[in-house]
Design a protein that fits this description.
The complex is a heterotrimer of chains A (about 260), B (about 280) and C (about 160).
Chain A lengths: L1 H37 L2 H40 L6 H39 L2 H7 L4 H39 L4 H11 L2 H29 L4 H31 L2
Helix pairs in contact in A: 1-5, 1-7, 2-3, 2-5, 3-5, 3-6, 3-7, 3-8, 5-7, 7-8
Chain B lengths: L9 E10 L2 E11 L4 E5 L6 H8 L7 E6 L2 E2 L5 H9 L1 E4 L11 H12 L4 H14 L15 H12 L6 E5 L7 H17 L3 E5 L3 H7 L2 E6 L2 E6 L1 H6 L3 H8 L15 H7 L2 H4 L1
Parallel strand pairs in B: 3-8, 3-9, 6-7, 7-8
Antiparallel strand pairs in B: 1-2, 1-4, 4-5, 9-10
Helix pairs in contact in B: 3-4, 3-5, 4-5, 6-7
Chain C lengths: L1 H28 L11 E7 L10 E4 L2 E12 L4 E8 L11 E6 L6 E6 L12 E2 L2 E2 L4 H17 L1
Parallel strand pairs in C: 1-7, 2-6, 5-8
Antiparallel strand pairs in C: 1-4, 2-3, 3-4, 5-6
Classes of the chains: A mainly alpha (about 260), B alpha/beta (about 280), C alpha/beta (about 160).
Bound molecules: adenosine-5'-triphosphate (ATP) and magnesium ion.
Chain lengths: ~260, ~280, ~160
Amino acid sequence: MILDWLQSLGQRALSFFQRLGRGHITLYYLLISIPSVLMRPRLLLQQVYSVGVLTLLIILVSGLFVGMVLGLQGYNTLARFGAEQALGTAVALTLVREMAPVVTALLFAGRAGSALTAEIGLMKATEQLSGMEMMAVDPNKRVLAPRFLAGVIAMPLLAAIFAAVGVMGGYFVGVGLLGVDEGAFWSQMQANVDLRDDVFNGIIKSMVFGVVAVWIAIYEGQDATPTSEGVSRATTRTVVHTSLAVLGLNFILTALMFGE
Amino acid sequence: MAQDETAPLVRIRGLRFARGERVIFDGVDLDIRRGGITAIMGPSGTGKTTLLKLIGGQLRPQAGSIEVDGLDVHRLSRDKLFELRKRMGLLFQSGALLTDLNVFENVAFPLREHTRLPESMIRDLVLMKLEAVGLRGARALMPSELSGGMARRVALARAIALDPMMVMYDEPFTGQDPISMGVLVKLIRRLNDALSLTSIVVSHDVQETAAIADYIYLLSGGKVVAHGSPEELGRADSAWAQQFMQGLPDGPVPFHYPAADYATDLLAGDEGDKA
Amino acid sequence: MMHARHIEIAVGAFVAAGMAALFLLAMQVSNLSVVGGDEGYQVSARFDNISGLKVRAPVTVAGVRVGRVTAVEFDPNTYQALVTMRIHPRYNQLPLDTSASIFTSGLIGEQYVSLEPGGDMEYLTEGSELILTQSALVLEQLIGQFLFSMGSGDKE
Ligand SMILES: Nc1ncnc2c1ncn2[C@@H]1O[C@H](COP(=O)(O)OP(=O)(O)OP(=O)(O)O)[C@@H](O)[C@H]1O
Ligand SMILES: [Mg+2]
C-alpha cells in the first residue's frame, strides 16, 4: 500500500519535473526565435492584431467598470475619515500598482491565452505544425514566436489602457457623481503617484505577466493531446495556470517593488 | 554528397523503431531507386506513415540508419536537415493544410517561405500547380470549404510547389472519385518522369499502384515481407504477396490488430478487458 | 490587399491608444514634471520631528503647491531632521523669515510642508535655511486624542 503510494508520488514528481523542463525548453526556443520574428514584422503585426486589438474591447469595458467601482468604494471608505480628497490617489494607486496589471492579465488569459492554446493545439492535432516542419519551416519561428512577442508587447499596452480608462471611471464617479473636488482629485493624485515607483513598476509587472501568460498559452497548446478533448483540456489549463501564476507572481513582485 | 546516379536515393538499413512497448519496425532494409516510383504497401497500421516520417527526419529510429541522397538523416544538424527537407515533399495523409490560409496561399506557402520570387512569379507557379491537380478554380476557398479529396489534391500541389527531388505521397488516392483518381495516377507518373523526381507512394489501391509503380515493397509485422516489380510480385508464389495483391482476407497477413483469440475474448466477458 | 490594410490600421490605432494611455499615466496621473525638475532653488529647514514626511512630498504656501521635498536627512550634530526642498523659480519672493510646518492632509493623509511667509524684506534664495519650524503632529497622539474624545462621547 505505502509502496504504491510512494511510487505514485514519485511518478507525479517526475512528471512534474518533466513538464517544468519541457516548459523551459519551449521558452528557450521561443526566445531564440525572436530575432527572426523581427525580420518579418508582418507576421508580428498580424498577431498583435489577434492578441491585442481583439482583447481591447473587454479591457476598455472592464477598466471603466473597475475604475467606477473603485471610485464608489473608495469614496465611501475615505469619506468616513473625511479624506475624500484622497480619492484620486486611492483610485490611481490601486489601478496602477495592482488592478491594471493583474486584471488585464486575467482577462488576457481568458480572451487571448485560451484562444492561443486552442489554435496551436488544433494546428498540432491537424498536423499543421509537423506539416510545416516537413516543408522545412520552423514552427517556432513562423507560428509560435510571433505570438509570443505579440503577447509580450500587447500586455503592457493593454494594462496602461486599463489603468487610464479606470482612472477616468473613478473620475466620473468621484467628481461627476459624488462631488469630490476636481482640483483635489487630480492634484492629490499627481502628488502621490510616482512615475517611477508606481507607474513604471506597474508596467514592469504587466510585462512579466505578459511573458508568463503567452508562455503558458503556447506551452499548453504545444503540449496538448492532439484530440478535441485534449485541446479543450489544455485550454482550461491555460486559463487556470495563468491565473494562478499571475496572482502568485503578483504577490512576489509587489513584495519586491513596494515593500520597503 | 554522394551524387552517384546509380546509388539509391534513399537507403534504409537495419531500421528499428518502437513506440513505447510496441515495435513497429524490426530490421527493415529498403532502397528507393532514383527517378522511379516506389510503392510501399501493407496492411493498415503496419507503419507506412511512420516510415515516411522517419525518412523525413521527424521521428528518430532506435537503431539502423536512413540515408537520403547520401546524407544520414538522423545525424544532420537541424539546419542541414531543413535544407534537405526543402528538397523533399511530403503529402500528409490528413492533408495538413494551414487552416488560416486559403488554397492559393497554402500552395504559395513554401515558395514564400523559401524563395524571394516576385509576386507575379509566385502567382504563376501556384496557378500552374493548382492547374495540375485540377483546382485552379478553387484558389480562393478556405481549407474548411474543401472536401477531403480536394484538400488532398491541394496538399499535393503544395508538396510539389518547390519542385523537390523527391515526393512522398501518403495515400494520395484515398477519397478520390474514379476520375480524379485516374488524373492523379497519371499526374504522379507524369511529374515523376517530366521533372525526373523520385516518388514514394504509400497506398492501399493495389490496381492503381501496381499500374504506376516501378517497384513495390510489401510491409507487414515490422518487416519487409516481399519486394519486387509489380509483375514479379504478381507472379511471386509468396503467400504474402498473393494475399495482398489479390486482396484476400485469409492468409499470412492478419486483418486484425494483435488481440487475444476472438472466442476466448467473447467468453471472457468484462474480465477480458481488465486482463 | 484590403485585409492587411485593415489589420495594419487597427494595430496602429491600438499601439497609439496604448502609448496615449502611458502618456496620460505619466503626465496626468503621476507627476512627470518633477522628474527632471532641476529648476528652482533649494532651501532647507530643521525639524525636531518630521513624522512620516517623505521625499517628493509637496511644499505649499497658503495651500498652493510651490515645490517639493527633495531630501530628508538626519543631522547628527543637532539631532534634528534636515529637510531639503526645491521651490519653483516662479515663487522667488518668499521672505527670509518664512516659517515651515509639517501638516497632514486630512486625518490620515500624507504629510506635507506648509510655508508661512514672514515680513522680512529680503527673500529666500538658493541655500537659505528656514529658522522657524514647527514639527509634525505625531499621529499616535492624534489617535489617542481621537479615541479619548470618542470614549467620552459614548458615556454621555
Ligand atoms: N502518435 C502515436 N503514438 C503512439 N502510437 C502511434 C502513433 N502514431 C501511430 N502509432 C501506431 O503506430 C502504428 C503505425 O502507424 P502508421 O500511422 O504508421 O500506420 P499506417 O501503416 O500508415 O496505417 P494506415 O494505412 O491506416 O494509414 C499503428 O499501429 C499505430 O497504433
Ligand atoms: Mg498511414
